[in-house]
Write a structure and sequence with these properties.
Length: 170
């Protein structure tokens, strides 16, 4: 259930499910989307951070999948060869990129990085997650059937609170 909810937050279509952040924001190159080709660079990360609308940086986070973190971001360095991604083994958190927390979400596609203030992504789970167990359907075999149900909705409330960095196919 949690995996389904997490996928909906990122990729939900808005039809019989919440509107995820990727389809829920109109991404425009040069405004709130930064394309890159071949290899991610330090300049691409800085350009993405600069595109975040004023006032949303307080509480902003980077979001990407694990593959993008380790193949694209982990090895980036500034012009003085200092890494821009800093791990934090003391607090057992993923780490920081340009001073902002990094969130790993494997429902984001490879080579797509979101930067924004996720407090402006509306999420509603009014009844929580219902979990039920039943022994009725398999009385003779002693099995137990489980059913989980969650009614949830999500939608980007303020689209300008998000910027997308993505690899083009060119």
């Amino acid at each position: 259930v949690m995996a389904c909810l997490a996928d909906g937050v990122v990729n939900g279509t808005g039809t019989n499910q919440g509107t995820g952040i990727l389809p829920g924001v109109t991404w425009t190159d040069g405004t709130n989307a930064v394309p890159y080709t071949d290899t991610l660079t330090y300049g691409d990360i800085v350009k993405t951070a600069a595109k975040l609308a004023r006032g949303y940086a307080n509480g902003a986070k980077w979001a990407m999948n694990n593959a993008t973190l380790f193949t694209g971001v982990y090895s980036l360095a500034d012009k003085n060869d200092r890494p821009i991604f800093i791990q934090n083994p003391q607090t057992d958190s993923i780490g920081k990129l340009l001073g902002f927390d990094v969130v790993v979400d494997d429902f984001l596609p490879d080579d797509v990085i979101l930067f924004g203030n996720f407090q402006y992504l509306g999420y509603n789970l009014p009844e929580g997650i219902a979990l039920e167990a039943s022994t009725q359907s398999s009385f003779k075999s002693g099995r137990i059937d489980y059913r989980a149900l969650a009614i949830a909705d999500c939608k980007p409330i303020v689209p300008e609170a998000f910027v997308k960095l993505y690899k083009t196919n060119a």
